[in-house]
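Hi R.,

Quick one: here's the Zinc/iron-chelating domain-containing protein sequence you asked about.
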Amino acid sequence: MIITDTGVPDNHITYDKWGGQTMLRLDDGWCSALDRDTLMCSIYENRPLICREFEMASSECKSERAVHGIIP
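And here's the predicted structure, written out as tokens:
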């Protein structure tokens, strides 16, 4: 959910059934801002707060990567 204004571009925003802004996910569940070639955020400077708080290489990060088969 996008709860602060960080400048996420409109083409990466969708709305949930309660009208809250969320990051757009593609049909396969991947974030629309993820560059699949580099696995880096294409809007890094404008990413939402939840992404800013998600620590890279944390246990949560590693388990999400494992779920999606992205183990370096």
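Residues 10-67 form one domain.

Cheers,
M.
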